[in-house]
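Slide 14.
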Amino acid sequence: CVHAISYAPAAPLRTHAPAALPLLSQWLQAAADEPLADGAALQLLLSALAVARTLLAALPAEQSGGVAALLPSWLKLLPTLDAPGGPAAQQRLVALEACLDCIAEAPALPYYAVSPHKRAVLQALKKPLDHRKRQIRQAATRCANQWHLLKPQR
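Slide 15: predicted structure.
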């Protein structure tokens, strides 16, 4: 289901976002609670992150409050995806970068929806900022910069 939705255009996702967000949130929560050992689960996670990123970019501000509810799931995924070694290590790095990109897009949401998460996000970004791979450090830097610039809109 999630994998097929990732190929959908943004317009249908926008219209069906209220129905898709709880399912996406539930799937990301399950992915954060269980270890992602095989490549198929990581591929589904990448699809779910692509859908979330599309929703972040496509939804108007008044409908995007539900997307902010995905933020705790993304934060729980960071340590899960950062586990060293394993059979799908390269795919986990791609998923970690995609997760960081989703977190970096979140400050575009309304301030009231994301401001309660600012401290937790900056705390969770400390480890990726010191990651052994340069692409992860760069993604974490972009993400941290966006969150440090988060200010109330006037």
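Speaker note: The mean pLDDT is 82.
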